[in-house]
Specification:
Two copies of one chain form a homodimer. With 575 residues, chain A is an alpha+beta fold. Helix content of chain A is 41%, strand content 14%.
C-alpha cells in the first residue's frame, strides 16, 4: 500500500505517513474515510478545519484498462455534505507511481499568497505561485509544462481562487489540456481556500506500483479489457460517439430537460446531438474518439475544433451539451463548445454552471437562449469576479434564492444533471438519495431505465427504482474506490467475467483473496461512511427528496410527476 | 372568539370560518398552529403551498396596556423553518375590533398583477393595485390614507415585491407612518409571492372585542398598567431613552458587536448612543418618547428629525443603530437614521440588512464604514432590483456564501442581532435553540444576563444559560400569543402581580379559569408545535448550534468564545 502525503497550509509543513487505519482503501473509499474521520461535520467548508484529499484508486497506476481515476474529497461548499468527485487525466497514475495513496491538504494559510505544490520522487515542495493569480487553467498548465515538462497537473482557475461553490478542480489530459474536471460540489473552492493554485506531479524515475502476482494480474487485466471491448456500449457506442450520443437517446425518451426542466424534449436536439458533433469533428479535423487517461480502451473523449479547424475544446460531454444547450435553449454546438472551454479555463462545473444560468434565465436575469450574455457571464463576470459573476458561480440554489425562482431543480444544494427524474424515475431516486446531492454518476440508473444494461426497469414507473438505484450506488462506490471509470460499469453489469476480473486484479495486485461479496461490501461501507458524515452535518431523510415542483408539475411528453414515495425513498438505506 | 378570514390568491376568493380546532388561540399560538398544520414543511416558501397568517393576540383590541401586537407567520424564505414575527402599529386592534382572529393568505395568483385587500365591517375585497408597483411603504400608506382615511395598513415595499429573503412586512403607526415592521425571516417576500401590496383594515363601526367580565378586566388591566409604570425598565428607562439606551450598556458589557462581530466593543459607541439620540431629538424637535401602538404605556418609540428639523425616521431602535452603526463601522447617527428610513420604505429587516452589509464589507464588496455606498446599495440597488441589490436583499448567509466569507454570524439562515453571544452567553443559547433562527426577541436573556431583571445569571459563564433561555422562550411564546409587547416581560419577570394580571385579564375577557401554569403550558405548546414543524422541514439538533467561528475565535474585550456545550444545548428541549 502507498503512503499519505499531508500538506499543512497553516504552517507550510509537509509530512508523509503510513496509511495506518486507512490501509486497504483507495479512491473514494479513502477520500470519504479521511473526510469522515478527520473533518468536523459542522465546520465551514472554506475554513481551516476542512481538508481536501486527492486519492488514486486501488488499481490506479497498474495496466488495468480505464483505471486511471483520481478521487477528490472534502466537505462540499455547495452541498455542505461530504463530497467525492473523480476524474481521469494523467495525474492519478503519476501519484500512484510515486507511492502515494492520498495527498491531503490541511489548514488555510495565514496570508493571502498563492502557492503551488511540486511533488517528485525526491521531495515535496510548497512554492510561491502569485504569478499565476487569476490565470485560466489553460495558460496555467501550459506554463507549468514549459517549466516542468511532461507532468501531471491538478489546478484551479479564477473560480477556485474566488472560492465559488461551483468551482472545479482541473486535471490535465494526455495532450496537456486542463479538460478533465472533478466538477461537482465546489471542490475547487476548497483548493482555493487553501491558497493552492496547482499541484504538479512528476513521476520521473518513480518506483511504480507493486504487483504481487504479475501473471495473474495480466491475465485478468486482459479479461477486463476484452470485456470492455466486447460490450456494445463500451466497445462501440462510446468509442464512436462519446457520451453526446445520449442527446438523441434521452430526448427520444422524453428525459432531456429543456429550459430549466420545463420540458422533457428539446425541439432543437438534433442540432446539438452526438451525431452532429461527430460530423463536425470529422469535417474540421477534430477527434470523435480520444483518451482522457492513458490505458483507457473506451476512448469516449473527443477533440472539438471550431469552423476554421482551430482547437476549441476537448472532453465535450453530453451533460455539458445539455446544460448549456437544451437547458438554456441554446442550439448552436459551437457556442456550447465555447462555453465548455470557458468552464474548463475558469475552472467551473459545467453542470452546475449551465444549470445556474438556466435558473437565472427563468429568474429574468437574461432571456432563455441568450448565448451572448451567457458567454459574457462566464468570460467577463465570473472570470473577473464581479458580484454577478460571484452569484452565478455560487450555483443554482443560491442564484434561485436571490432571484426568487421557485423551480430550482436541485437536491442537497446541487443542481440536477441532464436527465429529468419525472421521465426517468430511477435517476430521480439516485438524485434524491445520493450522499452527493443530485448526481447522475452516483448511481447511473439511465443504464437500466433507458439503455437496458443490467436488465430493464421501466423508467416511467416508480416500481423497482429504489432497488435499482441502491444496487448501482453500491457498485459505483466500489468502482470509484478501485479507480475504475464509471463507464466500465456497462460491461461489468452485463458480463459476469468482467465483474470477476475486478476483484481478481485486486487480489493479484495486493495478494488478497477478495470475493464478489467483498466488492459489494466495500461499496456499502463507503456509502454508509458518507451517510454518517452527512447525518452528523445535520442531514436527514428530508434532504433525500426532490424539489417540490417535481412532485407537482407534470413534464411533457409523458406528463408525469416524480412518483417514488417518500417512504420508498427512505427504504434506500435499508442495507 | 373571532373568525378566520381566508383569502385565496389562486382563485381570488374570500371566505370566513369559525376558529374550530384553533379555538382558544391567538397571536403566535395561532399563526404557528395554522402554519404547522396547513403548510407542507418541505414546500417552497414562495410557492402556492405556503401561507401567510396575520393574527392579533388574545388580548388585542381590549384596553389592556401594550397589547396591540399583530403576529405574522409563515414558512420563512430566510430560515426555511417556521416563522413568527410580531409588530405594533394600529392594524392589529382594528382586526380584533372587526372580529378577526386571523387573516390567512393562501395560494399564489395565476398572473403577475399586484393586488390589495380591503377589509371593513361589511365586506372583504380583493382590489387591483398595479398603480403601487415598486412604490415605497411611505408613499403607499400616504396614498392609501388619502383614499381610505384613518385605517390600519399592512404593506410591503419593493423588497417584498421582489420576494427578497430580507423583506419585511410594514404596519403603520398612529402617525400613519410605516415604521413598525415584522422584520425577520423574509415574511414580506411571502406577501409579495402572493401578489399582495397592502391590506387595508377599516374598523369604522366595528363591533369591538367582547369582554365577559368588564369590571374584573378593568381591575386587572390597571394592575398590569401600574406594574409597567412602576418597573424601572418599562416605567423609566424605556420611556426616557427607548431601546437605544442599550448602546452604551451593551458596549460596556463588551457585547456590542463591531465590524461583523470582530470586537465586542465599538470605539465610537457614544456617538450613536441613546443619550446622543435623545439629545438630537430634543435639539431638533423630534420625540424621544412616542407610542407605536394605541394604549401603550411604555412609549419606547421615538421620532427622529434631521439637522434641519425635518422628519427622518421613527421607531429608530437599538438593534437598527447597532446593525448599521457598530456592525458596519458607521458612527454618524444621522446616516444610520437615513438607512433606517430606507429600510422602512423599501421594506427590509434592518437587522438582516445591516448584518448583510457588514458581511459584504468583510467580503470586500465595500469597505467597512462606507456609508455612502451602503445608502446606495439600499436606495438604488435593492430598491430598483439590480442583481447586487437582490443579493444583499437575500441576507447575510447567501451574501457570505457568494463572497466566500467564512465568518457569517447566523443561525438557521438568519443573521444574529445586536448582542455578541461570546460576551453574553445566555443570548447565544437563544440564538442557537430558537425555532426562529438567531433572534434576540425569542428569549431575551439580556434581561437577566445584563439588566439583572428576573434574577441574575453571569453573562460570561456557560452555567445556567440553557435554563434561563428556556424559561424566557416559554414565557415569550405566551406573551406573543397574548398580543403583549415583549417589553412587558421586564415587569412580568420581576413582579408576580404583573404576571398574574395577564391570566386574570384573559379569564375576565373570555370567561376562563386559567392559572399561571396554563400560561406556561401555552408557551411550551407553541414552542413544541414550532419545533415539530422544523423537524418535519429537516432541521435537527445540528441546526441548534452557533457558527463555527464563535466556538474558535475569542472576541475582545473578554476574549472568550461561546462555551455552552452541544450536549447542554440539546438539553434545551427537555421540557
Amino acid at each position: 500500500m502507498g503512503k499519505i502525503l499531508r500538506i499543512n497550509m497553516n504552517d507550510l509543513t509537509v509530512k508523509t505517513e503510513e496509511l495506518g487505519e486507512y490501509a486497504g482503501l483507495g479512491g473514494r473509499a479513502l477520500t470519504s474515510s479521511i473526510i469522515a474521520k478527520e473533518v468536523p461535520p459542522l465546520c465551514h467548508p472554506l475554513g481551516p478545519n476542512n481538508k481536501l484529499v486527492a486519492a488514486p484508486g486501488l488499481l490506479t497506476g497498474t495496466t488495468a484498462p480505464s483505471s486511471g481515476r483520481c478521487s477528490f474529497g472534502c466537505k462540499s461548499p455547495l452541498t455542505e455534505g461530504i463530497k467525492e468527485g473523480n476524474v481521469g487525466g494523467i495525474v492519478s497514475q503519476k501519484l500512484a507511481h510515486l507511492g502515494y495513496s492520498a495527498v491531503v491538504l490541511e489548514g488555510v494559510p495565514k496570508d493571502d499568497k498563492l502557492r503551488m505544490i511540486h511533488i517528485n520522487k525526491d521531495k515535496v515542495e510548497i512554492l510561491p505561485a502569485d504569478e499565476f493569480k487569476g490565470m485560466g487553467n489553460y495558460q496555467t498548465v501550459t506554463k507549468l509544462a514549459e517549466r516542468y515538462g511532461k507532468v501531471g497537473i491538478i489546478s484551479i482557475g479564477p473560480a477556485g481562487e474566488q472560492k465559488l461553490s461551483a468551482a472545479s478542480i482541473a486535471v490535465n489530459d494526455p495532450d496537456n489540456r486542463p479538460t478533465r474536471h472533478a466538477g461537482r460540489g465546489g471542490q475547487g473552492a476548497v483548493m482555493g481556500s487553501k491558497g493552492i493554485k496547482a499541484i504538479v506531479v512528476d513521476d520521473t524515475e518513480a518506483p511504480g506500483v507493486e504487483i504481487k502476482d504479475r501473471d495473474e494480474f495480466k491475465k485478468w487485466s486482459k479479461v477486463f479489457s476484452d470485456g470492455l471491448l466486447k460490450h456494445p456500449v463500451t466497445g462501440k457506442g462510446l468509442p464512436t460517439y462519446g457520451t453526446p450520443i445520449l442527446i438523441n437517446i434521452i430526448n427520444e425518451a422524453g428525459g432531456l430537460p429543456a429550459r430549466n426542466f420545463s420540458n422533457g424534449k428539446f425541439e432543437q436536439a438534433t442540432k446539438i446531438s452526438g451525431e452532429q458533433l461527430v460530423e463536425n469533428c470529422k469535417d474540421r479535423g477534430g477527434k470523435a474518439t480520444h483518451i482522457c487517461s492513458p490505458g483507457c480502451v473506451i476512448r469516449c473523449s473527443n477533440v472539438y475544433n471550431d469552423k476554421d479547424g482551430n482547437y476549441l475544446t476537448s472532453g465535450f460531454e453530453y451533460e455539458t451539451i445539455w446544460a448549456f444547450g437544451a437547458n438554456c435553449d441554446i442550439s448552436d454546438l459551437d457556442v456550447i463548445a465555447r462555453l465548455d472551454r470557458l468552464c474548463d479555463d475558469i475552472g467551473l462545473d459545467t453542470i452546475e454552471t449551465g444549470g445556474t444560468i438556466a435558473v437565472a434565465m427563468e429568474g429574468g436575469l437574461l432571456p432563455f437562449g441568450d448565448w451572448d450574455r451567457a458567454i459574457k457571464l462566464l468570460d467577463e463576470d465570473i472570470r473577473n469576479g464581479t458580484p454577478i459573476g460571484k452569484l452565478i458561480g455560487s450555483g443554482a440554489v443560491i442564484t434561485g434564492r436571490v432571484l426568487g425562482v421557485t423551480r430550482v431543480p436541485a437536491v442537497k444544494g446541487q443542481n440536477m444533471p441532464a436527465y429529468d427524474p419525472r421521465s426517468i424515475q430511477g435517476i430521480g431516486v439516485t438524485y434524491a438519495t445520493s450522499t452527493m446531492g443530485a448526481d447522475h454518476t452516483a448511481g447511473y440508473a439511465i443504464a437500466t431505465n433507458i439503455m437496458k444494461v443490467g436488465g430493464y426497469v421501466d423508467p416511467l414507473k416508480p416500481e423497482g427504482q429504489v432497488e435499482l438505484s441502491r444496487n448501482l450506488q453500491i457498485a459505483t462506490a466500489a468502482l470509484d474506490s478501485a479507480g475504475l471509470c464509471l463507464f466500465t460499469a456497462f460491461a461489468v453489469l452485463d458480463q459476469p467475467e468482467t465483474f470477476e476480473a475486478i476483484y481478481r486484479m485486486l487480489n493479484a495486485q495486493y495478494g488478497l483473496n477478495l470475493t464478489a461479496d467483498d466488492v459489494a461490501e466495500l461499496g456499502k461501507k463507503v456509502l454508509k461512511i458518507e451517510r454518517d458524515f452527512n447525518t452528523r452535518a445535520g442531514f436527514t431523510n428530508k434532504d433525500d427528496r426532490l424539489p417540490e415542483f417535481m412532485y407537482q408539475e407534470p413534464v411533457a411528453p409523458h406528463n408525469q410527476v416524480f412518483m417514488v414515495k417518500d417512504e420508498e425513498l427512505d427504504e434506500f438505506w435499508n442495507f
